[in-house]
């Protein structure tokens, strides 16, 4: 078990090497630089050139990469041109909102999707099944920003139940914290819910036709027991994979929802940093997101063993 | 058993989500009533983030709009862009125009409790000279010196008639901070934001908000409030500049009362808000947009080619596309607006908005146009720039020109426009500048993208700056505007506006190159 985790962690190294080179090249090949953004549109080219020099942007690309890479190896992800703090500090301070949002979106998705998927599987081909699956197709197809704007119009502007946008940290109280996150969590979680519901349905269909389920039925086991104890647990591995993958996407991919709802999370940090060409933050944040993604996948892999003893890694 | 506990966990989570909306209603009520009891908190939805809060370091408008509430300068502008004293009690210009003496107001306190002294003023002003575009361009040989305990003297090697206006300019404003703060500044700017303004800086949470708090010891002038000058009263206890970059979020937030003020409302949405009794639209003049020609290389190096475009353009059509409603723009040829009575000139009006395609075609022929591709750069980060660019493209195509529109995000455009071989025209906006010398496109020495190179305009700018009186300067400016329409470094589309929307209970909003939030009351 320990060996497995170590191996997985070591495999992170080549992944991060590739990510670092690709991210660095993409960012530095994109036109635009932080100096002209800092100085504003009316600054003279001479002033921009002076600031570029001060910021070390006139060094050859390989040298800039080497400086950055040596920093990373030493645990220093760099310093933000705009935020007067290190990239790590910026990442940590933006992680809270994203994490809360991702967890809430995931909880919403799971609570909604698994029962829907199970019901659809049990009533395969019925009107209920078809309408649920139709709904899930809509969930996958509607872009989150559109759903977000629709939710804002309905629940914030028209009904005035919930705030339009913004974020209150947990320290302001749990309810206030959740109040600001409900709409973005629904907007973000809808697509995940659709994916999870579809996976639950198809996975359950496979299992419900398995021989041991038929045996259980013929033995007169209660239907509820069959569905929730025998079938769902066995159907859960592919569902868990989807949940894991979607959670990774939630952490990294909430940029649009965070922008629409003005939530100061990782997604917004990346978008804002791209807009102001804050190179160190873009590079560092993407590296950290890549690490989080791999770690989440590792945790999911380890969870397989908890659910299904057959894939347990340590067998002593 | 495990399953049962999992079920309960899910149940609790579900209830906390559903339950929170009900619980939060009370929450919001208490906070609302709390607001009222506290005497006022202003939530401003601002459209852009400041790159820094050091006003000297950047020309970015977000920095200017926020920091004007925290910092003050010796002199400032009233609503008509006339210079009035602020931290100076009065000022006196010597007869030869080379010396200006500023007598300071007494007992002015900084936000850290310290009283303002001549040393603070001298240190701040010398940093302004060293750091800002205007300082570096016009004052490098000038010095600020203390004169006794209560006055500072600006000594310049030669007459600079526009010096006071430069010192009053709200962009890269010549703000006064304590000497220690000036000394603690690095190339990254001020480390502390301590000024003398009606609001003091509390906190800047990057990507979220800047929080300002009423400065209780603020000593206001008693003269009538006008523009950035005169009486300033901080009625509200707290101001939050919330950074809301998404326009639809600002729009929704001002309608629900989440925000008290929403800046830069899209022109398309103004009408929708007009119908809402809970909010008020404020439309204010805010500079102009135009096309900037690349005069260093490619086709528009030839002045005839530029004149051809100027002859062809239908400015009304361009402005309508950009601002969607006649209330939000004004056909105006002048570089200085009518409010700037010290400068405004009618010269050049006949060269503006000609819509003469025959003349344009003739000029194009004379310029030797042979079907080469014309590249226009524009950014969708500013929808009005982009919409204008599309119409310019169409109008030039009608002349038989081959025109390509390259659309980039703003930082990319900022870089692309620096490459003389890459484009012919870029679309951009300019704020209303208080003096002609601040328009970079008039000045060859600035090497600003587009690369103006016209000795006549340089000479006239110099004459304006050294004129013996404002009347003389105005005379030279009329000649400059005439030369501007001959040389055409840029083409001005017309005056533009910005829409700021407030809740209807907000009274006393002010505008001069951006929003002014002192003297605001929340009824």
TrEMBL record, chain A:
Pfam families: BPD_transp_1, BPD_transp_1_N
SUPFAM superfamilies according to UniProt: MetI-like (SSF161098)
InterPro entries xref list: BPD_transp_1_N, MetI-like, MetI-like_sf
Subcellular localization: Cell membrane
Keyword presence, Iron-sulfur: no
Signal sequence segment: none
Coiled coil residues, start to end: none
All residue ranges annotated as the ABC transmembrane type-1 domain in the record: 95-304
Recorded topology in the membrane: Multi-pass membrane protein
Record key words, sorted: Cell membrane, Membrane, Transmembrane, Transmembrane helix, Transport
Bilayer-crossing regions: 9-29, 99-120, 132-157, 177-197, 235-261, 281-307
Keyword Transport among record annotations: yes
Stated family: Belongs to the binding-protein-dependent transport system permease family.
Name of this chain's protein: ABC di/oligopeptide transporter inner membrane subunit
Species for this entry: Neobacillus kokaensis
Lineage: Bacteria, Bacillati, Bacillota, Bacilli, Bacillales
Automatic annotation (TrEMBL), chain B:
InterPro entries hit by this protein: Peptide/Ni-bd, SBP_5, SBP_5_CS, SBP_5_dom
SUPFAM superfamilies to which the protein is assigned, alphabetical: Periplasmic binding protein-like II (SSF53850)
The UniProt record lists the keyword Signal: yes
Highest taxon listed in the record's lineage: Bacteria
Main localization (coarse): membrane
Subcellular location: Cell membrane
Gene3D superfamilies recorded: Dipeptide-binding Protein, Domain 1, Dipeptide-binding Protein, Domain 3, Periplasmic binding protein-like II
UniProt membrane topology term: Lipid-anchor
Solute-binding protein family domain span: 82-441
Signal peptide coordinates: 1-23
Record's keyword terms, sorted: Signal
Coiled coil in keyword set: no
Similarity comment text for this entry: Belongs to the bacterial solute-binding protein 5 family.
Protein name: Peptide ABC transporter substrate-binding protein
